[in-house]
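Ticket #4471: structure output looks truncated?

Reporter: J.K.
Steps to reproduce: submitted the chain below (289 residues) through the standard prediction queue, then opened the result file.
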Amino acid sequence: MPKSNKIWVHLRNAPLGGLAIFFLFLIAAFFAEYLAPHSPTDQNITNALRAPCFFEGGTFEHLLGTDELGRDILSRMIFGARISLLVGFVAVVLSGFIGTCLGLVSGYFGGRIDSIIMRFVDIQLSMPYILIALALIGALGPSLRNIIIVIGITSWVDYSRVVRGEVLSIKNKEFVDLARIAGCSTFRIILKHILPGVANSLIVLGTLMLGRIIIFEAALSFLGLGVQPPTPSWGIMLADGRQYLTFAWWLATFPGIAIMMVVLGTNLVGDWLRDTLDPKQRAAVRGKR
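Returned output as attached by the reporter:
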C-alpha cells in the first residue's frame, strides 16, 4: 500500500470528536484574550450569581452566568483552559524527560543500577501521589511554578517502567549489536538506536497522562494548593461553587463539564495514537475486522 494511502487510513480512523474537543480547548487557551467576552477578574457585585442566558434571569452579556463576585463564568473558563493545559503540557514534558532518562539507564545497563532505580520506582508507586504532592507543596508553597514541578516529579514513574520494558526488548536486537561492533559510544547507541524505538510508546503515554495531570491539577487547586486566586482555574471554580450548588449550580457544573470534556478528548486521541503507532494494536484491529 502506498505511504499516502496508509496515512489516509490512519486519519480516516481518527476520533474526530476527540480531536475537535482537544483543539477547541487548545484554541481557547492560546487565544483567551481575544475569545473571552470579559476580563476573568473583573468584579461586579450587582451582577452576582446571574443565571446562564438560557434560564430565567440570564442575559446574553453573560452567556454562562456569573459567580458570587459577579465575574463572568465563560471568561473564567476560557482563561482556566490556559492554566490547565499549561500545567498539563509542561508537567508531561518534565515527567516524561525524567522518567525516560531513568528508564533508558535502568533498562540498558541493568544489574545493580536497574535494581536501585526500580526499587525507588516501587517505593514511589506504593505512596499515593496526592500525599506526596501535598507534602511537597506544603514545603514549597502553592504557585503555578511549584505545582508544575511537583506534578512533574511525582508522575515520572509510569514513563520509567514503560521505557525500561521497551529497552529490555530492544537492546539485544541485531542493529544494536552492530552499532556496538561499529564502535559507537553508549550515549550514541541509546540516543540514536534505542530512543527512537520507544518514541511511539512515549507519545501515547504522554497523551494519556495529559488528562490525568489535568485532573490532578484541578484537585490540588480545589484543595487550595494549586494556582492561587484571582487567577482563574477550573479547580478553584469548583471549590468556589460547591457552597452554591443548591441555587447557583452553574458555578461548579460548567467547570466540571470542561474538565470532563478535555480529559475525554485527550483519552480518545491517546487511544487512537496507540492503535496507530503500535504494530501489535494495528494487527489486533485488522484481526477484528
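Triage note (M.O.): checked the attachment and the full C-alpha cell line is present. The chain has one domain: 81-288.
Status: closed, working as intended.
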